[in-house]
Amino acid sequence: MTGHLTNRLANFCASLLLALLIISVVSAARADSDDGVVRIKSAVPLAEAITRIKADIAAKGIKFFMEIDQSKLAADAGIKLRPSTLLVFGNPPLGTPFITSNPNAGLDWPVRLLLTQDDNGDVWAVWTDFGWIARRHNIRDRTAQFEMATKVVGSITSTITTR
């Protein structure tokens, strides 16, 4: 009996810690300006950040659509660009209702998450704030879904905030 109670308490504490981590990442990731851009600093190099994020997307059962190496595309065009990779993913049952509310929301769905490296070598995860997307497309009937999308991307990006 004591072992069972200890396991339940340990599982509860682990769940609580994960929830607090996600809340702290999402809170720290608020869009700082009116442009709706959210940035999270990565604690790991770009390649590892991409690997971690793609693994978490797969583990969550989210559909991964594509990875676009923008710096390679630029190099192929003879243009120098800092490392920059765009990941496109989504959960159609969650994202599609935004488009049913306003077809123009298809401009912002599926989710696009940019991983980029700045001049100092710091790696950033960048995406469009979902509340900003709701305001941009005047979507007022999907509050719970926008909140869920925010939690999901916060959870995904939390995988790169620690070594």
How would you summarize what this structure contains?
This protein has 163 residues and is α+β, with helices and mostly antiparallel strands. The protein has helices at 2-28, 46-59, 70-76, 92-101, 130-136, 143-157, and strands at residues 37-41, 63-69, 84-90, 111-117, 123-128.
Number of E-type strands: 5
Question: What is the helical fraction, as a range of percent?
Answer: 40-55%
Shape: globular
Give the low-pLDDT segments.
Answer: 9-28
- Average pLDDT, rounded to a whole number, is 86
Structural class, please? alpha+beta
Listing every helix as H and every strand as E from the N terminus to the C terminus, the arrangement reads HEHEHEHEEHH
Beta-strand fraction estimate: 15-25%
What's the story with the biggest beta sheet? Answer: 5 strands, antiparallel
Terminal CA distance: 37 Å
Helix tally? 6
User: Order of strands across the biggest sheet?
Assistant: 1-5-4-3-2
Radius of gyration from CA coordinates: 18 Å
